[in-house]
């Protein structure tokens, strides 16, 4: 990323520059996982926004800081070293190109399957001389974050008064769960200061296809979420907390009651942003459809039934900003 100038990037992708109206949402819903009213507040946040922040999450600080410093080390390697782990399809190092259909952003990243073995060739090539160190940092982090995600999914089921408490969590706990882990690095882009009122897109607007996403970042701003009225709001960074967002599959399972939140990242002009996101997905063969127990009275399913494999295939053929669920809506 250092070797391609930001000037040429901006010239070639001005269409992705966004005008900024960086209002900070006064309050991102805040959930204290140790509080007895967490489940009601989670349901409310998922219905209204599809997004909330979690404190008292139980993920050891040590796992967080080790992974952050190992990731920083990786991203500070020369581009030629990092490129040895490219392309990122399906897993590996990516630089500016997102997905396979022409999306670009001012970002470099690592994409991993959560089940990649530390001694697999893929992993060794990604992490150069000392892959074990980064891999064990990733493993520790993922298992703690997955447990937290499960706790949250169980609170959602309870809050929705679903009898089967693990109806969502069992999908991401399944051995076959198709979950993904991503570490993004958004280098600073000083040139954007010159562009009054414009911001560079780090990661373009999109919704996440999976069930639940758990994001953590360093203390650099950049993440924005879209409100129902179409306005973008900036999420104040908080390196000690996690941000949760509802994915498309959870929107479907709740028949639209929970909202899959549209979000994006704008580049910071001065500081690097590092974010790490766990995307909890179901097994490929899992059928995704509204839960019958959530349907009230005459309520109809808004979606056709599909397997996660079918949804994922369609998602990977889409552009980032596309509405991927329209193809699965009932007319
Ligand atoms: C968005 C959420 C996750 O980061 C991701 C992304 C994936 C990719 O980067 O390869 C996608 C994107 C994400 C949705 C549409 C397709 C696929 C890029 C893209 C243009 C890993 C995921 O699962 O879907």
Brief overview, please?
By secondary structure, the chain is an alpha+beta fold.
Please give a structural write-up.
The chain is α+β, with helices and mostly antiparallel strands and 331 residues long. It contains 9 helices and 16 strands. The chain is 28% helix and 23% strand. Helix 2 (38-48) crosses helix 6 (131-159) and helix 3 crosses helix 6 (131-159). The chain is globular. The protein starts with 5 loop residues before the first helix and ends in a 15-residue tail after the last helix. The site of gibberellin A4 (GA4) has 16 residues, from strand 5, strand 6 and helix 9.
General form: globular
Order of helices and strands: HEEHEHHEEHHHEEEEEEEHEEEEH
Q: How many strands appear in the DSSP assignment?
A: 16
Low-confidence stretches: none
- The strand order across the widest sheet is 2-3-12-9-14-6-5-4
